[in-house]
Amino acid sequence: MAVTIRDVAREAKVSVASVSRALNGNTNVTDATRSRILRVAARLRYIPHSAARSLITRRTHTVGALLPDLFGEFFSELIRGIDLAARARGLHLLVSSSHGNANEAAAALRAMQGRVDGMLIMSPHVDADFLHRNLPDSVPAVLLNTAVKDARYSTLSIDNYGGARTMTQHLIDAGHRSIAFVTGPDGNYDAAERLRGFQDAIASSKRKIASEVLRGDFSEESGQAIGRRLAATKTRPQALFAANDMMAIGCMLALIEGGVRVPEDVAIAGFDDIPIARFVHPGLTTVRVRIAELGRSALEQLASQVEAPDAKTASAQTPRCEVVVRASCGQSAAAARGTKPL
Amino acid sequence: MAVTIRDVAREAKVSVASVSRALNGNTNVTDATRSRILRVAARLRYIPHSAARSLITRRTHTVGALLPDLFGEFFSELIRGIDLAARARGLHLLVSSSHGNANEAAAALRAMQGRVDGMLIMSPHVDADFLHRNLPDSVPAVLLNTAVKDARYSTLSIDNYGGARTMTQHLIDAGHRSIAFVTGPDGNYDAAERLRGFQDAIASSKRKIASEVLRGDFSEESGQAIGRRLAATKTRPQALFAANDMMAIGCMLALIEGGVRVPEDVAIAGFDDIPIARFVHPGLTTVRVRIAELGRSALEQLASQVEAPDAKTASAQTPRCEVVVRASCGQSAAAARGTKPL
DNA sequence: CTGAAAGCGCTTACAG
DNA sequence: CTGAAAGCGCTTACAG
């Protein structure tokens, strides 16, 4: 059906080897035969079969990305960073997402075998044993935001702990003496680390801070529910720090709707700095994770491992987060120590 | 380096054919030999080479997506729809984006050859001749939002014209007698169709409407610039309809910052209904494009073409858009005819 | 039930 | 400079 290299060879009256050479521009072919081959290839609308080529060259010029999701503010940004860096290096992207359990993730990872030169992996189902079973040692991989500590893999992580700690300190410095923290879903690594940062900041503070932990699940709705509850009570914390922006926004809008003023009555802070954070009113003070930057770095590390498979350069990086001060905490940027406004 | 089917065959003391059969669970293999093979395969951590398998089965279980971008509100939603439908059918996604020109797009499309069972194509660089040169007739493709009319390809389009026309009529019905339209970038098909819808609605209106066309480029900044200009003048239109939401939002925020009230002084409407639209203050009245739905439909059409290559079912669909009424036009949902609130 | 062989579409030493 | 041949890792008629 489709036209192959043999068809071109036959029509151009040369061997397939010559067609291959002419098309790849590599080795010695006469200008005459080369141009004849190119003409025939164009006429037949020949398009090389990438998979067949990969099979023998051992290069796919493709990286795989195993992600929990493809959409939403966070992943959109992450993919953007990955894509930018991949394009700059002429790499394609094979994506796989939304694996409900470890088996699905394993199937996805295995299906990539032979189709990618390396893997970018971010998944709650991944641990060292999982990788050992489903990823050949010969395939380079970079782990994103995982708890796995394996010397064979480079890892890149969000500074959940440090970011949460810095934000909590910022709230304390701003004068708040009772602070509530809204958690993410149970078992979520990022959420747990952010909570830990909050608690350590409270515990190590020189001042006495009343703290409280409220349960959320990262969804806007869970924030909303908390906001409504808070609006209906009289004993509100002075500040509320949500483990992600969507909950902070849901909570803030529900509070305002319930007649509570933000930031005058309650200060609100989030985590992530998703694009919406600067569009809500008041603008949301939050911890900025340079998500796209994270994706870009991850891809570049992976690419360098693909190019130099021997260089044992497994590293663990955790780029610092920064607090972005907006109106929802009722503080001018200048008053914040060591932070940077948008 | 990597373990292959031959290694498993040797260790299990069978032929590669038997290993293949056992692993694919297809044909007749004794339970004894099958379990022995499976045991050996697990011990050696054998993972089949998908590309090699595809070469002979002629099935990759992967669809390619050629998109202008991977990120941003619009594409994030589109990919979400595509991904959901692909996952439901066990298909992988090979994506390629951000092609600055036709040559880059051609290279991307060609590189997919042999790695995908079909293509989802959305690109400003694509026309019938382009497809003829860079896509074998044997590869099914579904075109998204393109001007190409080729009986060989199914197309799925956003109802830019109808949506813009309905929104314009909505503004007229709301009593606005002078309306400005903010265009998208030159040469952009969606932008041109939206402008055409606006102009036709104005032209065919029974009432006399003063209209004006302002130049934007789909960016928030271009909307901002227009908003600032409008805030500084006295001769403002009663309503402003931007060709996309980001411009509408940029314009709205700049107007408000300049002391102009929205919707009291100027009503504002956008196009797309990106997630941010309901978070800005006031909420943005806009045309909802069911983006994820578009992606889902496109993938399902493609999948059915892949499964039944002969069924010549090329179709052209244009799902209707709907006007979503929020506060930025100063009208209650009930007052809008034939529209649906969020 | 099992194996030897051909072949998917390509690239690359190896000769000439 | 050019071609015949081997081989990448797999699957599948074809025999037995």
Task: Using the alpha-carbon principal axes, give the shape of chain A.
Answer: elongated
Assembly type of the chains comes to homodimer
- Biggest sheet of chain A, strands in spatial order? 2-1-3-4-5-11
The share of residues in extended strands of chain A comes to 15-25%
Structural class of chain A: alpha/beta
Tell me the total number of β-strands of chain A. 12
Describe the overall structure.
Two copies of one chain form a homodimer. With 342 residues, the first copy, chain A, is of the alpha/beta class. Helices cover 42% and strands 15% of the residues of chain A. Chain A has twelve helices and twelve strands. Chain A has helices at 5-12, 16-24, 31-44, 50-57, 72-88, 102-111, 128-134, 160-173, 189-203, 220-231, 245-257, 291-307, and strands spanning 62-67, 92-97, 118-121, 141-144, 154-156, 178-182, 210-214, 239-242, 267-272, 285-288, 316-317, 322-324. In chain A, strand 6 (178-182), helix 9 (189-203) and strand 7 form a beta-alpha-beta unit. In chain A, helix 10 runs parallel beside helix 11 (245-257). The longest helix of chain A is centred in the first third of the chain and has 17 residues, at 72-88. Strand 2 (92-97) of chain A pairs antiparallel with strand 2 of chain B, so a sheet runs across the interface. Chain A binds a DNA duplex (16 and 16 nucleotides) through residues 4-6, 14-18, 20-21, 24, 27-30, 33, 48-58, 114.
